[in-house]
Amino acid sequence: MNISYIQHIALLDALKKQDSNSLEFVILVTGALDTNDKQSLLLLLQESVRVLKNKGVLFIQGIPSILPELGIFLDKYLTFKYWFAVESTPIENTRLPSVHAAVMLFTKGNSRFNIKRVRLPHQHCRACERTLKDWGGKAHLMHPEGYVISDVIKDLPSANNYSQISKPLFDILIDMLDFSLERKEQRDQLIDIPPSEINGLVGPIEGLAWKHKSLAESHAQYVLPNLPPPAKQNGKQPHSINTPIIDKDNLFNVVHQGDAVEILRQYPDESVDLVFADPPYNLDKDYTIYDDERADHKYVEWCNTWLAEYARILKPTGSLFVLNLPRWSLHHADFLNRHLYFQNWIVWDALSEPRGKIMPAHYALLFYTKHPTDFTFNYKAISPIDARYYCLRASCVRNRKKTGDDDKSPLNDIWWDIHRIKHRRDRDYHPCQLPEPLMERIIRLATNSGDVVLDAFGGAGTTPITALQLGRRYVAIDLDPNYINIMQNKIAQIENLGQVQRQSIKQESRSVTKKALQLELRQLTLDLGRLPTPEDVKEKSQYDLELFLKTFPTWGKALKAAKLEIQS
Which of 74, 103, 163, 418 could potentially form a cystine with 218 if both were Cys, beta carbons 3.0 to 4.6 Å apart? Predict the structure, then answer.
């Protein structure tokens, strides 16, 4: 692999001298650049786009307060793939301590994009010695060489990845690169480009910790942007025909059905302490009324409309939290940076199960305030938390706490300790329901007793029921009458019974478990020295072939554990 390492002073000229469509990859370290010089920075991005080949990769390193604007620019020319959150040396000059450095990955063109699996060694719980990642009964599927990295990279040696890239992180980025060519006569096969023909450019070299030891202070320090106060919105747009006029004497502790924007416009300026949103992600999810598949620019315009209302109704000491995929959070942050004050790009590390070449775990939780420093912030109410060298298995937590093994760590802006909802018994009929512990942490952090919490996409009601249980007032909005009913029923149960009553769900009984069938195929693999076929199962397995075919949607799924024997 031919990599050119370029100094800061020569970086733009080096890119200009490259032929168009000549490089497989470019790595830009914006932490070592002057990000206040927007003209020069955008020229670097333009040249990087020009020199990339089709399917080429651009990695762009930086910090969450700087990268969204650059990401929006690149999104016009390249295809966004990942925002990697990289746990780094803690920064203490933010109210919520930050460990979040970032690397965005863009690729050129919309054709097939190849990437290699990169594994890190399994980490083990200091108390029970099982893996820190709870595989939920699927430990037999663990690869012996380690776990596949997700888009939240946590288990690297502590380093400053804000103004530079550490060697372990750089190695991961290089290891991810996969440049293969399809054979025209056999579309299902790939051939590797020889390493000598892979060309890349990395710069500036001042941002590579192991190549340039005397890095000066970063040009892009991790501080709040110097923004003007939010502009007042003049005039109100007329209400839509289907949106009710709300009762001005009944603004709080209420659930509204109707269009979120039209209802928000009826709330007074600076009337809410905490605004939260977990909007539809534009992924064509199965909502009963809302169309979750808009054109990209229409989705962003719609989000900007309700974000502007959120900024308007927020109290001077109030906070805004918005949860979305990194792809859309780039646009949210770019918009909010012009209206409110950036505090943190919180990373909710919400991996549910191992899958894919890069496991999707990163949900972006943007944290903004109306005032740069004077806002409600109850850090001691939520920090410290259990140290991360413990696992989260309930049995381990109980056992170690009984013995006094209970080390703590300060909470930072990578939230790894809250799982997505795993069990059907805890889920309502909603495609994207949030766990109550996530909302409890946000509400405790940003409000006091009696404060108002508003969620314009109430869904299954996690926000209002958590606010009610914590002694806060709530406002919830949703377009769908089915979700309104879910919320109102749960609120009534809390008010009358003190908790939400859930019916137990009977698991479908199987004569043989999935795990037993997968382990059977693993044993057959050891016996045969290769992956077994359905014919092998007919001849050699203690279980009937029909059991395998009914239990797994594909033969490949059935062989998931067996493949580990071949790989190892």
Answer: 163
